[in-house]
Amino acid sequence: MDLLDRISLDDTWTEFYEYKIAQGNMSCKEADELRAYIDNRRYEAIVDSIINESYEIPVPVRCEINKLNSSKKRIVYTYPYDFSNVLKIIAYCLHVYDNCFANGCLAFRRDRSFKSVIGTLKEKSKESRLYAIKTDISNYFNSIDVDILCGELSEVLVHDKRLFAFCERMLRADKAFDTARGCEVCEKRGAMAGIPVASFFANVYLRKLDREFEKRGILYYRYSDDILIMTRDEKSLNEIRSELYDRLREYGLEINVSKEDIIVGKKPIDFLGLSILDGEVDLSFATKEKLKGKIKRKAKSIRRWCDKKSVSYEKGAKVLIKSMNRKFYSVEDDDFSWSRWFFPVITTSQGLKQIDAYMQDYVRFCITGRHNKGNYRIRYSELKKLGYISLVNKWYGYKRTGKYEN
Question: Is pTM beyond 0.70 here?
Fold first, then answer.
């Protein structure tokens, strides 16, 4: 039985639903919608036509999303709900191919994740001198060469030829509905960031490069477009850096030079939003600055909205708190809410304390329009009544119970 046969079975959909519920990554509304989708067998006609190779793949919607602290936009693609759910269960079943990837490939893995290598990085961070490079592939997902990707996919999905044929058709369609222009466009979409199987495609694309570095005994980690390499000395670091960049160019990829971080000596290891030094794991400087920027922009926008609409400033403060609580704790925005990513791995509350203090300052700003000592007349107890939740308190609660309390 191949993978497409599996997703035609009721038991597979039940298993998929139970897995999603157990993960706790869906809101009640999303869970109810998925349950209704499965109970009404809305997937059946789509799956049958994919198996029969008669399904007409819909044109995805192309959206541009603002990137934090940047004037650049991030392009993401989305498919209609019914088809997207079929892609989600395909992605769920594709974990049977996890053994095709190097141990250092950390994204979209059930048997291995970033959390699984934290211990190694904590030990390395205790060394008196470090030699490492952290780099970022520019616009990775959408820069992927579809010809190269399809070649790699044909090798990985050698026992799932019908699934490969479906994926190849989807990847080569080269059409999207551009929401900004309000029309259909033809363009190279790469692996289509945003669709449920994009992470699998991103792992497949560089799987040979990942394995080559790993076989040479190099401490190499890649999470989609983020790469961290650690070596024994500065000479080998420079050689591997040059080799890595040459190899990435062979794949049609470019490095985001502004995000490159070369570590020589006693410095923190910054990777995936974390800063690791002397065995301690905290929020990285970039993570804190991004959050502060988001809080500041949101607070000023809300203050202007209050003035324009004659809304009370206290209500504006509640809007800011609700917005940031959703960012930190909600599971509705994506599979990885902020707290679910960071809480299990950080070992100190220092970064959280800084974000808490900054957030409290801007909640008070929403009410007074000022930044001064007089703001402290608005006591912490009053902030809590408005709905404010301390990150530090939430983190300690997670440490005690091992549970996320939304």
Answer: yes
